[in-house]
Every structure is written in C-alpha cells, then in structure tokens.
Amino acid sequence: MPAVTVTTDQAASLRKLVSDSKITAAPRKGRVISITSGKGGVGKTNISINLAYALASMGRRVYLLDADLGLANIDVLLNLTPAYTIDDVLSGEMELRDIIADGPGNIKVLPSSSGVVEMAELDEDRQAQLLEKLKDLDDDIDYLIIDTGAGIASNVLRFNVCADEIILVVAPEPSSMTDAYSVIKVMASRYDIRSFNLLANSLESPKQGERVFEHLQKVSRDFLQLELNYLGGIPRDPKLIKAVRSQRPLLEMFPDAPAAKSIKALAQHIETSASVPRSLAETPRKDKPLRFWERILQWREKKN
Ligand SMILES: Nc1ncnc2c1ncn2[C@@H]1O[C@H](COP(=O)(O)OP(=O)(O)O)[C@@H](O)[C@H]1O
Ligand SMILES: [Mg+2]
C-alpha cells in the first residue's frame, strides 16, 4: 500500500471539538450518508443517484447534495438544468431552499456548479457555512445523500467527517483499491474515523467483490487495527451505461437490471439498519457520538 502523508495538525480543531462535545441537542431525524472513493470514475454519482431514487421510492424524503465540487455532474446525469446552484448559496444570494431542484422519483437535488475553481477549492469556513445551512433542511428529510469528490482533498474529507455514515466505493482494480486504502488511512489517522462501509462496484462476480473487501480488510486490520463493514457489490452492467447516456437513473429506466437490483437491496439494507445508532454499530467511530447536525453546529460555534 502506498505511503500517505498525513498532516495531523490540519483540521485537528474539528476533531478536538467533536470529541470535546458537550452538546445535547435532541436527536434529529435526517440521516446523512456520504458516498466517497479514493479514485475517481468508480461509480459514486450513479450510486448516489440510484440509492437516492431507491430510498425515495420506498416513501422516504431524500435530498441529494452534489458535493463533487468543481466537477459536479448530478445535474447532467439527471438531465436537469438548474437555475441556481450551491455557488449562489455560498455567495449569499440564495438560500438553500431556493436552489432545490426536483429530480426524478421525488428526489430533491441540491445542484452544484461544474468547472468553478473556486468551488473546488472551497475553504473550511465556507464549507462550514454550507453545512450549517444544510441543517435547516433537517425537518424535511429522512436522508441526505452526499455525492463527494474522489480522493483526500480537505473538502472531501470534511464532508465525510460530518456524515453519519461513509460509503466508500471501490472498483476491482489495483489503483482503486490502493486509493481506497489511502482514504481509510487518512480519515483514520487525521480524524480518528474508524467506521467505513465498503461497497464494491463494477464487478464481474460477487466473489470478485468479496476478494476486494478481504484485501482491504486485511491491510486495514494489519496497519490501522480497524474493521471494515462490507455492504456487498454491484455488478458491472451495460444497462447502467445506457442509462447514463439517456441521462436517467438506472432504477427508473431498467428497474430489473442486475445493478438496479443490487442498489435496491442496498437501500433495503440501509433502511433496516436505520435505527442502529452509530455508537452501537458493528464498527463504531470511536468518540463520535454526535449526529451530523450537532457536529456542524459545534464546528461553527468553535470557529466564531
Ligand atoms: N456498475 C457499473 N456497470 C457499468 N458501468 C459502470 C458501473 N458503475 C460505473 N460505471 C461507469 O463508470 C462511469 C463513471 O461513473 P460515475 O458514477 O460518474 O463515477 P464517479 O462519480 O465515481 O466519478 C459511468 O458513466 C459508467 O460508464
Ligand atoms: Mg461523480
């Protein structure tokens, strides 16, 4: 596995304020799941969209945040032409509620702007502002799915730190696996995050996904002393490529396609594990009893 340079001081304040928590806000309903990866192009956006679609078709109120800042493309994949984006919220011209776009199957999309360098380089203050605004959506939602950028850039890691659950997407290729390990290593050592849900994508067989998981599990256990949770795999599916070309969710266009069935099963699994607080989960994040919204609040309070 590649060596990862970790700057432990960077954003140490966030980690500290999370672990020093004294906030006892009433638990809130919305469940925040970040979809992330080490390497780009492994299927994060398609999984985010289709997972959101599956949860929404189960009657859940689902928001989908395009947080692949700078390379945003949920709008393209859903054939939306949003009038406003998160950029307008950050510039203070719009409220988050004003930029919500109606996606297929009742998904509410918070679109982002592609090709805006400023967004890609979102600093900690502005990111905290954005996350705090997300808090205002809380009464209305069951799930907030965050489609993050790939890799270990600070803004990506911060979305993951703030989420209740992290789904790390990995493809069965050496580079995707080593990069996934880099994410795990940086998140564990910089932010003390110890709970990762692995989702293998573009598989030739279920066995291939299990091998990917076993490999990452072994190195994570040997070098970081942490256990990963395997969420299962999604097959490589030509129907998904067709759906992408048609700018429609796979689940809407080909609900019986193999990858669609896997994503529905994933949504069912997530639903049935919904009531398990993170601290009681199989691989809890140590010292992180706070919910997403509480972590954001604290972060903001500490910074002001
Ligand atoms: N399960 C799959 N089967 C077939 N192709 C896939 C699958 N998942 C992803 N792809 C291909 O990978 C491309 C990139 O997917 P995307 O969701 O945009 O990745 P990311 O958001 O991680 O960059 C898709 O356009 C599609 O061609
Ligand atoms: Mg993407």
Number of continuous helical runs: 13
What is the level-2 CATH architecture name?
A: 3-Layer(aba) Sandwich
Strand order of the largest sheet: 3-4-2-5-1-6-7-8
Task: Give the CATH H-level superfamily.
Answer: P-loop containing nucleotide triphosphate hydrolases
- Which class of secondary structure composition applies to the elements? alpha/beta
Indicate the percent of residues in helices: 40-55%
Regarding CATH, which class? Alpha Beta
Description:
With 304 residues, this protein is an alpha/beta fold. It has one domain: P-loop containing nucleotide triphosphate hydrolases (Rossmann fold), CATH 3.40.50.300. The chain has 13 helices and 8 strands. Helix 6 crosses helix 13 and helix 8 packs parallel to helix 9. The longest helix has 19 residues.
Task: Give the structure's gist in a few sentences.
The chain contains 13 helices and eight strands. The chain has 304 residues and is of the alpha/beta class.
Task: Note the main attributes of this structure.
13 helices; binds adenosine-5'-diphosphate; globular; 8 strands; alpha/beta; 304 residues; binds magnesium ion; disordered N terminus; Rossmann fold
Topology, please?
Elements lengths: L11 H8 L11 E7 L6 H14 L4 E6 L6 H4 L8 H5 L10 E2 L5 E3 L6 H4 L3 H12 L7 E8 L3 H9 L2 E6 L3 H18 L5 E7 L2 H19 L4 E7 L2 H9 L3 H4 L4 H15 L19 H12 L1
Parallel strand pairs: 1-5, 1-6, 2-4, 2-5, 6-7, 7-8
Antiparallel strand pairs: 3-4
The structure holds adenosine-5'-diphosphate (ADP) and magnesium ion (MG).
